[in-house]
Amino acid sequence: MRDFAPVAAQIEPIAKRLMAQYPNGNVRSALIPILHEFQNVEGWVSPEALAQTAAWVGEPLSVVESTASFYTLFHRRPVGRYVLQPCRNLSCLINGAGEVMAHFRERLGVGHLQTTEDGLFSYEEAECLAACDRAPCMQVNLQFVYDLTKEKVDEMLAAMRAGTYDVPPLPQTEKPGRDWHVASATEKRSKGAHGVPDPNDPGGLGDASGAGMIERLAKQPYPIEVRPTRERLVADGAARLQSPASTPSEH
Amino acid sequence: MPVVKVLTEGIGEFDLRDLAVYRERGGYVQWKRAVTELAPADVADITMKSGLRGRGGAGFPTGRKWSFLPNNGRPRYMVCNCDEAEPGTFKDHMLLEETPHQVLEGILLGTYAIGSQHAFIYIRGEFERGYRIFEQAVADARAAGLLGANVFGSGYSVEVTVQRGAGAYICGEETALINSLEGRRGEPRLKPPFPAVKGLYGEPTVVNNVETLATLPHLLARGAEWFAKVGPERSPGYKIVSVSGHVRKPGNYEVPLGTPLRELLEIAGGPREGRRIVAIQPGGGSSACLFEEHLDLGYDFDTMAANGTMLGSGAIVFFDDSTNFVEAALALVRFYAHESCGQCTPCREGAHWLEVTLERILNGGGLESDIDMLVAVSHQMTGLNLCPLGDSIEPFLASVVKRFESQFRTYVRSAQREAMPV
After folding, report:
1. Was domain B238-320 assigned CATH 3.10.20.600?
2. In this structure, is residue A176 part of a structural domain?
3. Looking at the domain assignment, is residue A168 inside a domain?
4. What is the pLDDT of residues B199-222, one digit of tens each?
C-alpha cells in the first residue's frame, strides 16, 4: 500500500492557488485542474485523490466522482508508463490510420483500452486530435507525434522499451491491470432477471452486435426484407397505395 | 492565389510566443489604445459594424451576441472557447500554440468590449503543450502590466484564468463548457436561459471562439470597413480554413470568405496523383457532404447553407475516389456515439445503434433494410436533443448513403449471398 499523505502534501499548495483564481469563491471550478495535478504526480486519479479533492473543494465525493468519470483523459485505473493514442477519426483514417492502428495492436498484443502485461504501454484509439494536416497522428502521454508509418511505430516502441524515447514516461504508483478504462471493465452487463436473455452471450438474443438475430432471421423462412402486402396497403389507405415507397424519413 | 495573412501573419517566421517579438510587430498596441482611448461601446461598435461572424461553428454575428447581455449590473464573464475538437479542425490549435499573445489580446479586447473584468479560456485537455504556452503568455503579459489591476493606469482591471479540459468533445458546446468550467460534468444545459442571460456562475456570459477573438485586434487596427468589404456582404472577412484529407498539402490556409472550393483544393496542392475528388465535407464532422459538381461554390456561410450544408468551423476534408465511405461513415458515427454525453435518449441510443449497424454492415452481416434504417434513425434523432450533437450525424451519413449507396449495397449484398442459400 502506497503512502498517499506526501502526495496530498505536495499538491496542497498548488490546489490552494488554483482554487483562488476563480471569482466570488467558486472553488469547485478548480476540481478538474486539481485532478490533473494528481494525475501528473501519480499517473492516474486514485480513489484517495478523489476523496482529497472533494475535501478541498468542499463537495461530496459523489460530485467529484461524477465529474471525474465524465472525462476520458482522467485515468481512474492505473495505466502504463506510455499512453499511446493514435487518432481513428476521419482525416487520419483516410490517410492510413487503419494500418497504423492494426500495427500497434499486433506489436503490443493488446486492443483498445488495454495495457500490456509488463505495464509499459496502455493503448487507446482516440478521436480527432486536431492535427489533421499531419495525418495519421497520435499522442504519446499527450505529446503529439505526426505523420505515422509502421516503421515509425516500430522505432517509437523500441525507443520506449530502451528508455530513450524523448517523451518522459508517466509515473506509476501501482501496477496496472489489463483493462485500464473503468468503462471497459463494466461493459459486461449483469445477467438480468430469470428468463431474460443473457446480454453477455455472444450471438444470443441480447447480444448488442445483433449477429445472432441476423443468423436466426437468415435461417427462418420469414423475412429478411418485409414487403407490405397489397391488403395491408389497402388497409393503410388510398394515399399510401399511390406512393408505396414513402420514405422512412417522413416519420 | 488568394491566401492572405492576417491572423496567420508571422507564423513560421517569428517566435510569436515571445512577448517582445509580438510587441515589436505591433502587438498590444490596440489593447492599449482601447483601454486608454476608447470606450467599451466603441470596441463593440466596431465589431458589430465589421459583420464578423463567430468562427467556432454556428457563425452567429459576434457583435449581436454581445448585444444580448442584459444591463442588470451583475458581473459578466468572457469565456474563450478553445475546446477545438470538431473532426477535421485544427486552426485554434495552431493559433494557441503559435500566437498565444494574439489570442490573449483578442480575449482582453472582447472582455473590455462587453464590460467584463474576468475572462476565462477553456483549453482542450489534449492541448497540453498549448496550455503551457498560453499560461506562460498570460504570466508574461501580467508581468508586463498588460493585464491585472489598473491596466495602463486607466483604472480598468481585468483577470484571465486559464483552464484545461479533460477530454470531452461536447465541452465545445457553450453551456457544456460552462458546466465543465464550474467543475461539473460537461453536459449541455437546457436553453433558454442562454448564457448571455444566465451563464457561468449564473451570471451573464459570452462564449466566443479563439479565432473570433483573435480577429479583434485586427478589426481595431484596420477598422470595421476593411473587414466588412472582404468577401460576400453577409459573410465578410478572412477565415482560416483547415484543409485535410486526400490533398497533397493539407494545412491551415487563411483566405477571404467566398473563395471557391476548387481554389481551396488547388491551394492545398490538389488531389493525389491519378486521383479525383469525389466528395467534400466543408464544415467539420457535423456537416453534410458536397460533391465534385459543387467545387465551384464559394466558401462562405450563406452559400454553404443554401446548398444544404454549413461552413461550420471552417474545416474542409476532401475525399478522392479511393475512399471507402462505409468506413468513413462508421468513423464519424462512432465519434458521435463516443462523445454523446448521454443526457438525451435519441442521441445516446441513436448514435450507439447506428454505430452497431454500420459495424455489422462492414463486417458482412448487414441487411438491405439496414441502409434505409441508417438514414431513418439518423433523421429521427434530429431536433430532439438539448444540443446539436445528436443532430450532427444525419448530415454526413445521409449525404454519403444517398450518393454512394452502391458502396453500402455491395457490403450487404455480399453478406446476404452468404446468409441465404438461394
Report:
1. yes
2. no
3. no
4. 999 999 999 999 999 999 999 999
- Say if residue A55 is in the same domain as residue A92: no
- A210 and B356 within 8 Å at the Cβ level: the answer is yes
Q: At what angle do helices B100-113 and B128-143 cross, to 10 degrees?
A: 60
pLDDT in tens, B125-183: 999 999 999 999 999 999 999 999 999 999 999 999 999 999 999 999 999 999 999 99
Q: A179 lies in a domain?
A: no
Give me the DSSP letters along B54-120: -SSSS--BHHHHHHTS--SS---EEEEEE---STT--HHHHHHHH-HHHHHHHHHHHHHHTT-SEEE
CB A89, CB B331: distance < 8 Å: yes
- The A residues from 165 to 194 touching B (CB cutoff 8 Å) are none
Q: Which residues of A touch B338 (CB under 8 A)?
A: 127
CATH of B19-228, one of 3.30.450.40, 3.40.50.300, 3.40.50.11540, 3.90.190.20: 3.40.50.11540
Instruction: State pTM to two decimals.
Output: 0.88
In this structure, is residue A125 part of a structural domain? yes
Q: Which of B89, B357, B367 sits opposite A130 (nearest CB)?
A: B89
Contact list in B for residue A53 (CB cut-off 8 A) is none
In the A/B pair of chains, how many CB contacts fall below 8 A?
Answer: 187
Q: Is A10 on the interface with B (CB under 8 A)?
A: no
**Cell numbers of B30, please?**
490596440
Are B168 and A70 a contacting pair at CB < 8 A?
yes
CATH number of the domain located at residue range(s) B325-419 in this protein: 1.20.1440.230
When divided into structural domains, chain A yields a total of 3
User: Residues 26-45, chain A: which have Cβ within 8 Å of B?
Assistant: 26, 28-33, 35-36
Q: Give the mutation candidate from A28, A94, A222, A251 for the B interface (greatest B CB count, under 10 A).
A: A94
Q: What is the dihedral of CA B90, B93, B97, B103, to 10 degrees?
A: 110
In CATH, what number is assigned to the domain containing residue A47? 1.10.10
In this predicted model, what pLDDT tens digit does every residue of A186-235 receive, in sequence order? 444 444 444 444 545 544 444 545 555 555 555 554 444 444 555 555 55
Find, among B295, B300, B252, the residue nearest to B89 by Cα.
Answer: B252
Domain that holds residue A133: 82-162
